[in-house]
Amino acid sequence: MEKSLPFPQGFLWGGAIAANQAEGAWNVDGKGPSVADAITWKPNLSVKDYSGHMALTDENIRDAFEGKNDARYPKRRGIDFYHHYKDDIALFAEMGYKVLRVSIAWSRIFPTGEDSAPNEAGLQFYEDMFRELRRHNIEPLVTLSHYEMPLALSEKYNGWVHRNVVDAFVRFSNVCFDRYKELVRYWLTFNEIDSIHRHPFTTAGIREEKSAPGKAQQDIYQGLHHQFVASALVTRYCHAKIPGSQVGCMLTKLTTYPHSCRPEDVEATLKKNLENYFYADVQVFGEYPPLILRDLARRDIQIQMQADDRRILKDHTVDFVSFSYYMSMTESTQPDVERIPGNTVLGVKNPYLPASEWGWQIDPVGLKISLLELYDRYQKPLFIVENGLGAKDVVENGEIHDSYRIDYFRAHFEQTLAAINEGVDVMGFTTWGCIDIISAGTSQMSKRYGFIYVDQDDEGNGTLKRLKKDSFWWYKKVIASNGADM
Ligand code: BGP
Fold it and tell me: Catalytic positions (predicted)?
């Protein structure tokens, strides 16, 4: 590879995980069950198919907590990061990470969400983890809501539909800001806040079967509004409490192309892209886009707002825009165009792009397009907080030769640098699943993203031994050269 120009000085190279997919210890040291702990495992998914995956019933949830040992519930949900975090952080430091994105499991701090006092063992765990990161000069980038809502709030209020959950989340977040104000300055509020429509239970504790007939969408938009307000309220408190802190929103960037230049295809694609921006628009501009308000009115969806909600949204917007990007999508209005099975968000096949084993269409140029679009729209610093390739890595004589992952990241880093060289302000890049963890979409371990392999199978069996993949050494070199040596 010829040497490329380096990335800007201080570029935050690192990795990303989430508590519910990495920590395990789901019922240890006072932690209460979260909505993520109740998720079943649906075998042999070829694409991210949340629909079948979230077929949750009271029986599913009861099984999960009665320890039913059948294959649907991996024995451990995670890689026991809860007990391995010092060794794992040492591995991230060996790669040279400047930042590590993690989430705080809400139900580790408030087991039912409305407890009279926070769980000190939970607070201490994250304090110890953040201190360990700082000991290695790694900045924590902390997500407050990453699918770890206390299950009790879902069962009592049907999740975010009820305004009381705003108060519970603000209380949880403010306890975190107070406790970690000396340790954490980069915060994200809601992971992929747009995904409330795709999987309302894991992101907001909303079970559509609990909505009144015909009111499921009404409830979801009400829950989303409550998340918008909660995001603004915690942003206000964080800015007041932690001088120099930066709060970001977090969007699934669903960059979508028209399958043809047929105007109907272009219109359908435009609407999908505008709908995707809506979720960041509210947190960046502090108000609902007029076209969205018009669409809600047309659909007879009336969001209940309290008197000062609009003022709160307007006065407490985010400092940067973070997003996940794995693939681009393609839309068509034509019935004869082959749609990707199992997941409506993936759209139709793009004949110009390869796909992963889970059908995700690999498109590095799409990342540059996403960066240009987001920066042009918001003129705020951007942070790529999820990008990576899920693959069925194989161990051969103790080694994992994942050249496909190196190729994936090299291409996406090159496109990121190209966007930076065209003027886009990019703060950093945390690759998703920097160590093999549980897939959110399938609960499988076999969909591996890491630079570090973890010996555990889909049913939770294994030694949990960590192994460095070929990509571990490659990423270490990229960071050491600040992107000049890829
Ligand atoms: C995003 C989530 C992450 C992660 C990622 C990869 O939606 O924010 O938690 O899971 O998807 O998806 P998966 O794990 O299903 O491969």
Answer: 386
Residue from 118, 114, 196, 193 nearest 155 by CA = 114
Distance from Cα 192 to the centre of ligand 1, integer Å = 10
Instruction: From 404, 421, 413, 405, select the one nearest 484 (Cα to Cα).
Output: 413
Nearest ligand 1 atom to alpha carbon 449: 16
pLDDT at residue 62, rounded to an integer? 66
Q: ipTM of this predicted complex? A: 0.98
Of all protein residues, whose CA lies closest to atom 9 belonging to ligand 1? 440
pTM to 2 decimal places: 0.95
Question: Model confidence over 262-316: pLDDT tens digits?
Answer: 999 999 999 999 999 999 999 999 999 999 999 999 999 999 999 999 999 999 9
Q: Is 49 in the pocket of ligand 1 (CB under 6 A)?
A: no
Calpha distance 486→475 (Å, rounded): 8
Question: Who contacts 395 (Cβ-Cβ below 8 Å, separation ≥6)?
Answer: 453, 455, 467
Nearest CA to 33 out of 131, 106, 124, 139 is that of 106
Neighbours of 136 (CB within 10 A): 15
